[in-house]
Structures are given as structure tokens and as C-alpha cells.
Fold each of these.
Amino acid sequence: MFAKLRKTGYKMINKLIEEIKKKKAPVVVGLDPMLSYVPEFIKENAFKEFDETLEGAAEAIWQFNKGIVDAVYDIIPAVKPQIAMYEQFGIPGLMVFKRTIDYCKQKGLVVIGDVKRGDIGSTSAAYAAAHIGEVTVGNKKYCAFDEDFITVNPYFGSDGIKPFTDACKENNKGIFILVKTSNPSSGEFQDRLIDEKPLYEHVAKKVIEWGEDCMGDTYSNVGCVIGATYPEMGKVLRKLMPKTYILVPGYGAQGGKAKDLSLYFNDDGLGAIINSSRGIIAAYKQEEYAKFKEEGFADAAREATLAMIEDINSVL
């Protein structure tokens, strides 16, 4: 798949849009597995084989992820594994992160690696090579993690972003740059006024600039992240960034509501993809889906995903 995309010049944003259209689901499921989300029977089986070790925890996470993916891959276009949830289990956790990426791509899903990387140029180049590019070993090249998109922190400015946009162009991949995040304290920096405009608007204008050289057919391979918890800001940024795809975290568990999400979309019904993580993968813990019990955690995830898709489509 990787070689084919490079050879044909196919843009990753085009693939994401095609999958959204095909499945009529502007939805991404966040694979952010805390060990507390994993049903007891899965943990028990993993600990029998690997004991209560990092390897045991990683095996439990893998079996949990596989169950979720098998239940939802046919109704969603994309998944978003958050690397921190894997890194906490060390090298075994990172191996499961990679295994999850590979499995999702085998299922035809677009993979958005939620890694929030960004640093000075040479370090960003290494991050870009690891996640959406290639690393050279002797006379051979390898794709280490090989996500389709990753999230990127723009705090270092253009020389921190350029290695990622270069990797997008060279490998037909994409990035989502943090513009306005969904957490409560995001305004401490992001809402600060500079020349009478909030910082996030200045970042948005740079995202447009960075994205102009990475265009797909209609939208850029350089997207942005705007939280669902700030719809009025999302409305302003949507108008400012008509060709920028928006990854929208914060739906459901973090307080984002479907009635506010139409503001993030363009008139063509595209332009945004909405993320839900624990609201999907830990749905069996919610009263609404308690009937599935632990053994039916994957069925509960599918039911919650279908409900989310219907909810979002109802406001578009």
C-alpha cells in the first residue's frame, strides 16, 4: 500500500474523504485503551500467559483493541490510536501500538496516529521519519510506525513543521496540526490576544500557509485539530480555513454535542471528522449499554458507534 501511494501520487486526504463518503460516517474511533477499560476476562487471560507484567498488560491491550476493531471497521473510515496509552507500558506497549496500526490498515482503515510531535528541525525530521516517512538503514529504507496521518504541535514554528510537511509530500501522508484543543485550560495560551486576535487564529493562518503546498483534490493533507467543546471558535475557524480538514476531539465524554458540530463542516457536508474515544471503546461501562456486559464489550462499542454516526449525520 505504501509503495502504491507513493508511485501514483495519491493524496492521503483523498483516501480519507473517500472512506468518509463510502461509509457515510464522518467519525474516527480513538483507540486510547486504559487498562481499566479492558474487561476482566481479557486481563485474566493475558496475565495467565504473561503474568502481571508489562508484557501482560500489552497483550491485554492488544486483545481489547482487536475486539473493538473487528466490531467497527466496516462502519467507520478511520481510527486514532493515542501513543501515550501504549508508551506507558514501555517497549511492549509500543509494539502493540505498531501491531494495532498494522491490523487497522489491513482492515482498510485510515490510521491517525495521535502522537502530538513537534520540536526543532532535526528532531522533527526524526519524528516525521518514524511516523509518516522512511528511515534509512544502510542501503535500505523502512517505515517504522507508518501511520497515514499524525497530530503535530506547532509551538516551534515553521522549522518545526517543515519536516512534517516535507514527509507529507514525499510519502503522500497527512498531518493534523493543533490549533484549538478541547481541554479546559487550553485558553491559558491559545486564547491570548496578539494584534487583537487570539493566538489560535494566528496559528490557523499558518496552517493554511503550510497546507497550500500539500493539497489533495479539494482539501489539504495538512489539517488541524479544533476541539468540539468550543463550537463558536470552531465556527470562526471553519470560515477562515475552508480547505483545511478539521479533526474534532471532545465529542461525548468531554462534553461536545452533536448540535454544535455542524459548525465544523463545510456546505459540501465534508471538512471535519469527529473523534470519540472512551465513549466508544468503554461503552459497555455505560448504563445505556450495560446489557452487553463485559463479554459483549465489542458489540457495545459497535452499538455506540452506530448511535454516534446517526447523531452526527442528523445535524449535517
Amino acid sequence: MLLALSSDQEFFRGTTAKFLEEHVPVGVLRRLRDDPAGFAPDYWRRGADLGWTSLLVAEEHGGGSISGAGLVDLTVVAHEFGRHAAAGPLVPTNVVAGALSTLGSDVHAGALSGLLSGTSIATWCLAEGPPHDGLGEVRTQIRVDGDELVVDGVKRPVESAAQADHLLVTGRTGDDLTQVLVPRDAAGISITPMHTVDLTRRFFVVSFDGVRVPAAAALGEVGKAAEDVERQLQQALVVVNAESVGALQAAFDMTVEWAFDRYTFGRPLASYQALKHRFADMKAWLEAAHAISDEAAAAVAAGAPDAGRLVSVAKAFIGSYGAELMQDCVQMHGGIGVTFEHDLHLFLRRLTVDRALFGTPAEHRRRLADLIVAQEDVA
């Protein structure tokens, strides 16, 4: 999270943290394990009242930012979500809200209003299953048929699909991409739950079999959505990275406290030189994760030319070194670190899922290599 928050951002952070501590403490998170949605509708509505869903939405559409960079402000919320392993579809709802604000027409106004008020949620259907599960690979088809658009394909994983009122579907039209907002209850849609290690987030397989919607449901121009999809992907990565760093910070702080409280052979664990070296490595990884996450967020918010490169660097670094840091936290806790009763697993679960969403570290390293090759070809 940002090293220096403005007074308004700090108030926003504190308000969010207090709300999460009151409404989704660890005891509640454990009970939500068996909840079909993973969160309560009233909880999400109250979070929307705090501004969780409005930061990527323009002021003329009912949104607004705190600092003038809504995406950066959203990372403050995401960090607290990670630090509390909090429930709720923060990433997909904000990505869809931002897309509706930027690209939507009067047809989409009602959907955006519901997202801002928290009375409805939306999710983004981007990724697809094997063998077409690589980052950026899209095989779902969206074709024009008169004054309608027809959607065929399968998307997975889709967060909160069964609870969403609207599905933003990214599909292929010819050689380019198209995006369309589809009601969840449209004819031809089937939703199947998936298993996940996260206690409160729910993911689904969504199948589209000849789903028809009016042509006006498209966001932006049909067959010309590649740049829009790239922008949304960068925004999603920024939020996921910030959440991951929040989870890492919580796990690290918990482990430091444990190392000073836990005595062995008459000495606290923290006094052993070998563990001091491990803590030094963990602290270096954590501070670097904060820094690259913030740098990428600022670049994407400003639309900088190197935003795509930075956000992939951040995802690759946080996914790789974050996993190492989290495993060290588990090991330093000893046997208690792998029990369900201890809180550490909440953050391990959150990081594990975030690490896989919107591209694995390996996929983002490959993406970086492709960017470098492309730049050399231009030169």
C-alpha cells in the first residue's frame, strides 16, 4: 500500500478496515465457508455505501475518486481486503462498473446504478478453461445476427457468477474482440460451481449456448474491443496485486509477533540468527512487493505507455516471491501453521487464489518476453 496516504485516503482506509473488522472477523469468515455466496447481500450494500464500487466510475455517472486517481484509491480498499481476507466480489464488480462508465450507453445505466448502490453485482467473464486457458486466449464467439448478438462458449473461472445480476462477456468477433453485457438469467446460460481453496470467494463455470441479446447490449464497438479488454485486465491486475500484498502483510506481521512470543530453549524464536536472516529476506520481498504494486497502480491509473509491462512485472514478482514468503510464515509457525484453527491459512488461501487469477507468474513472464520482442522488432 502507498507509503504516504493523504488524510482523505487514510480516513477511507481506516473506515474500510473498521467495517471489515466488525462485519467479517475471522470467526465470521470461517462460518461463511459453507455459505453459497460467501458474503451477505447487506454486507455488500453497506460496503458500496462506503464507496467500494464507485472509484472507477466517472462523477457524471455517480462515481468519483478521493485523490483524483480512482484506481489508486481502490488499491487502498483492496489492500484491506487482503489484510482481512475479506469477502465480496471487489475485483469483478469494479472492473465491470468502470467498463460501464467508460463504454456504456443509456441501455446500461440501470445496471451501473445497481452496482453503485450495491443492490446488484456484476462479474467479468474473461478466462476460459483448458486447453484455451492461457492468459489472453479467447475462444468464445460473439457474432452479429441482425439486430442481435449471439454468444457461444464457456468461461471459467468466473467469480460470483451465480450471485451476479449481469455478466460482462468478452468474446471473439472475427479477428478482434467484442464485449457484451448479458443478464445472468438469459436463456442459454448454465452456471456450474467450482471448488476453491478460498473460504469466501466463489467461482463458477459459465456456459453460453446460443445466448441472444440486443445489439445495444454491446460495450463499445463490436469487433473493436481489444484495447478496452487490455485496460480492464490491467485494472484487475492492479487490484489483485494490492489485495495479495495486503494478505502478505497480514501473514508477515502475524509471524513476527509469533516469533517474539514463542520461546524455545529459553529464548524467543526471533533471537535465532538463522531465523533473523529468513526474516530479512521476507521483509525485503514484502517491501519490494509494496513498491512494484504501487508503481504499477500509478502507471495504469495514468495510462502510462509502460503500464502493461509494469503490471505484469508486479504480478510475476508478487506471485513468485509472495508464495515463498507465505510458505516461510507457515514453516516458522511450525505445526500450528497448517491447522484450520489458526488464522494464518486464511491469508495463504487468499494469496493462492490471487496468484492464479488473471494469469500466473509464468504467464506474465512470458507476456513480458513478448513485449520485449515486440519492442525490438519495432526498433
Amino acid sequence: MKERILITGGAGFIGSNLAAALLKRPNTDVVIADDFSSGDWRNLIDVDCEVRAVFCDDTQLLQDIANGHFSAIYHEAAITDTTVMDQKLMMNVNTDAFAALLEASAQSGTRVIYASSAGTYGNSPAPNCIGSGEEPENIYGFSKLAMDRIAARWYDKHPSSIIGLRYFNVYGPGEHHKNERDGTKTASMMLQWYQCIQAGNPIKAFEHGEQRRDFVYIGDVIGANLAALESSRSGVCNVGSGKARSYNDIINNLNRTLSIQHPVEFIHNPFPFFQDHTEADLTETSALLHWQPQWSLEQGMDDYIKLLEKGHRGPLETA
């Protein structure tokens, strides 16, 4: 009998990549629930699964979860734009809906794997460790920390495991739509700067490009999600490369891969909550998921740019 796995936010960047990967597993069906407020139908053109155009706390969807219609739930639905400052909206969409989903899943004993964020750490000193330095700088980061706290309250009374994955800076195929909605640009700097190069515009980077982040390729993010299906206990863990790299490293890799030397314009950073240094401590990740990242920044960018040069815009598994 086939496993039936639900992905909320399945038309988004990570959700669509996850759907494409799961469909390659034997005896697996995927159901996507997405209200298409930020996801993109084009991510699903080559992903053959059931798609429901509903919000993740839709009454019928919650009832289906409570009735045990799914063998596992990946909860990716969220407001992911960190510049949204509407506190009530952020908490309603990210935190309250998650609480309703957890309550429904507890009735059926369905495993839940959900998207948390490195935004929970704010600007606390790196490396970022689970249970330490959880000091978010904006409402987005707080909404994710609140999700982790809600999940922890369910650990002992939920019949199955609940796994929170704190994503660091994810990049890769399937994120084009993040630059195409309402004039906002929330895709990775890899894509944003690649598009600047293609348009003949200078790369604009915050002064002076030495900010360091943990950039993780979508292939590794999917690997961690698949590993979470096998975890025997609940918990939250970091999903990153485990190594911080500078924005200048991204620029240098773009120039190297494209065999160019593109001009850079350094600008003032207007965001007081901007994280200057993130780096995932993977100790708990290894213990909980028995997983380690496989892609270096150079390898991930080489693979991504090769796909961009071919015009590919869908999930990695559909390339």
C-alpha cells in the first residue's frame, strides 16, 4: 500500500523540491496544500501529485489529518519574507496554524516534520547551537522560535515524532518566484546576483561583503528532510552546511563559474535585524537525523549556475 505524504506550502521553493524528491521514492503519493499566496504553480508542472488550493489550517484538511489520511506531514507553509513587520499576521500564519496542525496530527499519530529557521538565533554569536543564543531580531524569527516551543510541548504527548528543521540560507533551483511577486526580491543572493549579471547591472552588496552566512544547497536540505522520516525521536536541529562563508565568496564563485569579473557596488545596509554571521552547529543534527551535508558552496553554486545557464527554473529533481 502506498504511503501518502502531505506537504503544506508545497508550491514554494523547498516544498516543491521536497515533493519532486518524495515522488521518486517507491510506493509514495504526495498531496500538496498551498494557498498560492507566495508559492508558484510553475514549480509543479513536472511534479505529478494531488494539489489542493487551501490554507494549511483549512477545516477539511485538518479533519483529514486527524482521521489519519496521511503517513507523514511536511509543514513548509509560512510567511518567509523576513521584512514583513505585521506581528499579528506573522504569528497567525506561522505559529497559530502550526499549533492547529499539531493538534490534528496528535489525534491520528501522524509524524510531523516542520520548517523552523536560523532566524531564531538573531545576531547571537556563531556557531549557532540548539538551545543557546535563541534571540531573534524580528517577528519572523520569533514566530519560528514560538513554533519550536509549541512543538516541544507536544513531544511527550504526541504518538509520533515531531522534527523541527532550522534552515539556514537555502539556495538552488525552484526559487525563481521569490523574485517575481509584488516587486519584492527574497530569493538567494546567488539567484539575485546571477540575474543582475544577465541584465548587465552591477552587483549590489552590503558594505563590504564580509558578512558571513551558512549557505546550504537545496540538495542537502532535501536530504535532511528525507532523513527526518526515519528519526526515532522528536527534536529540533539545524540544517546548514556547517561552515560560514562571506558574500564576497558568492561573488567570487559567480565570477569563477561564469569566467567574468563583474562590477560590484557596495551599499549601506538598511536592515537593523540583518544577521552578520550565522553558522550551523550540526551536533544535534547528526544525533537526531544521522545526516551530514554533502555539498560545499563551490559544488552547490557550480551545479545551480549550470542549471540556470540551461534555463531550468523548477525543482532540482526535475532538472
Amino acid sequence: MAGADAAHVAADLRAVTTRGLRLAVAVFAVAAVSAGFALAFRAGLALVVDALGGADTVSMIAAAPWWERLALPAAGGLAAGVLGLVEARQKRSGAGVGYVIEAVVLGRARIPLVRSAVRALAAWIAIATGNSLGREGPLIQAGAAVGEAARRVFRLDDAAARLALAAGVAAGFASAYNAPIAAVLFVVEIVTGVLVLEAAVPIAIASVIATVITRLVVGAAPLYGAHGQGTWRLPELAAFAGLGLLAAPVGVGFLRALARAERAWQRIPTPWRAALGGLACGAVLCALPAASGNGFEPLRGLLDGKIAVVAIGWLVLGKLVATAASVGSGQPGGVFTPTLLIGGCAGAVYALALRAVLGDAATAAPELYALVGFAAALAATTHAPLMATVLACELSGDYGLVLPLLVATALAAGLARRLYVDSVYTAELSRRGVRWRLTLDGRRVFESQLDAVDVV
């Protein structure tokens, strides 16, 4: 009997060891492939920009004649819409960040490989042609798809496969923003909603691996450059708290504008609505080229203090309209960086208003408020204040703003949750009948109308 028990223990130990080794190899492979995909995605966009005579998306659009500013986004939208028809034929599966969240958390969905590839290509075309979209969406989706592939290749069980999916999401985010800690917090605050050691280890390792690979190719500098924004005084925490309260309605207003635009475009069939959305975006670009792309270039100029106050006001309006036209018409892509730009503009305008009332000596530089503003707006739209705080530090290399960032993002997220119960990601789930809320007792699913779906 003792020999039989020992054999069972040895067999169990071998099974656990084999499972652990498979998961470890899978996490490494997922991180490496996700980082490689992100680098290829970025390099492909750079090739298009260079071929059209620009150093970046904004300069490419600015150098184009007016008719090309109209035609490029419209053509990209049409191509993305045609690919959307191909994607929609994969009826047994879904796509999008919301679907990825459901697959990781509930474990009853599968990330479709074919549909994810088609969606990534459509997003690449839409972004490359100047439409106002972020690139984090397709990179996160691709990372999750790589995790799904690892499920098959390494024959992972359901629990291990969910960890591989989460690792893929973290790797995709880390590669998109060169921000490993924020990538971990993105998964913890937005995707899983809870922090457990079993998930934290593979997520953190995947984030590190993807970031190392990315930095070997593109460098280790913060995405928006190193910013020593100067000093701020302790009494200014009240001003930063006010900025957080302001960022909440700004972020919620942005989400509502996107939702209304999506409803307005629904009556037009695909792919024509995506083409018309691109045309509407192009009309904005005719007057304001800085509204093109994901918003990286003008946001960097804002943080460097190189954008005039009048231009900031027009940029907020133009970016809002261009993004609503692009996203609302069904073009695949993210709204992460456009949110950062709108929040950064709001923060800069807020600082200039404070200076007009209190004087220049009473407040820190407007660029500092722009940085805190973009983090607060992001917290308002994602309901993830810790991720937004850390992301702002990693993107700028300025860790002296932790206290202003924490107070602003916490207030922005708290007020935004009261104004608009869903975040940009849970709104997508709610529209499909999946609703949950995070409480001190954990995640509670209130309603679900979806069954497990097969992998395509």
C-alpha cells in the first residue's frame, strides 16, 4: 500500500512538473512572438509613412494635398470595412479587447486565430492611412491570439491556457508602450480584476520579456521622451485634485461621443460606413492634420510645451470628431492614445486657466498638468487609476509626479464610475449581454447570454 501511495505521489509530481514546464515555455514563446508582432506592426506603419514622404503620420498627412487627405482615410476605411466582412463570416467567434477579457476571466471563450489576423490587418490599414485610431487594440488582440495558439501547440489545460492568454495581453501592451509595469497593471486592473500569484508571475515575466525584446530594437528611452517637468508644491495637490474631477466628465464625454457615433453609423451597411467614416476623418484632417493617427506626435509636442493654446483648443475638438468618425464607423483600432491626447490638452488648458487667475508663480508648468491630465482622462475611461498613474511615469520617465498622479487618477476614476458605470472595455461587454462588477467580495457576473464558442 505504501508503495502504491508513493507511486501516486510521484505521478502527481511529474504531472505538476510537466504542466509547469509547458506553461513556462508557453509564456516565453507568447511574449517573444507578441513582441515580434508588435515590432513588425510598428515597422510596417513606418514603411508606409516613409513611402508617402513623411517622418511620422502627422507630417505625412500635412505634406499631402487636400484631396489626398480626404482619399487616404476613406480608402483605408473601405479596405478595413471589406476585411470586416471577411471577419464577420467567422460567425462562431468574436474579436476585440472585450472578448479577450471574457476569454481570460470566464474561460469559456476562445480567441479566434483567423479572425484576429484579419482584424489586425484591417487595423493596420486603417491606421496606416491616417485614421484616428490607437494601435494598442490590435496589439492586445494579437497577444491574446498568440496565447490561444500556445494553448494548442503546448496542449495547455484550461487554467494554464487562461494564464497564457493573460501573458499575451501583457506582452502586447508592454510592446505597444514600452511600459512593463503598466502592462502588468493593465491586466490586473482591467482584464482579471484581481491579483493572484498564479497569474502575476507569468504576466510579469511575459511583460519583461516583451519589453526587453522591444527595447533591443527600438531603444529603452521612455516613449514620449524623458521629461523633468520641474517642481510642484504640496499645496498644489488641491489643484491636481481639481484636474482629476475635471478629467472625469472629459473622459465620460469622450466615451459617450464614441457610443453615439457608433449608433449613428449602424444604419449604413459595411463596408460603406467604414469608408464614410474615413471620409469624415479626412475632412477633419484637411483642416487639422495633427488629428491624424493615434495622437502620439501632438501629445509629445504638448508635453514638450511646443503647442500654442489656440492650437490645443482646436486639437481637442478635431481629435474628438476624427476619432468618433473612425471608431464609430466600425474601423478596428484602439482609443487609448487618443484618450491620452484629449486628457493632456484638457490638463494644459486647466493649467493655463489657473495661471491666468493665480499667476505663473503659483502653479507648476502647464506641461506637468498635461501629463497628469492625460493620466486622469485615461483613468476615467478605463477605471484603472493605478495603471494610468504608472503608465504616465513610464511614458515620461518622470517619477516625481506620483502624488499628483495618484490623487488625480483616483478622483477621475471614482467620479467617472458614478457618471458612467461602464469603462471603455466593459461597455463593449455590456452591449453583448455580459455584465459584471468588481466588489470587495470579488468579481460578480450579473448577467450572461453567451455560451462557450469554438476556435476557428
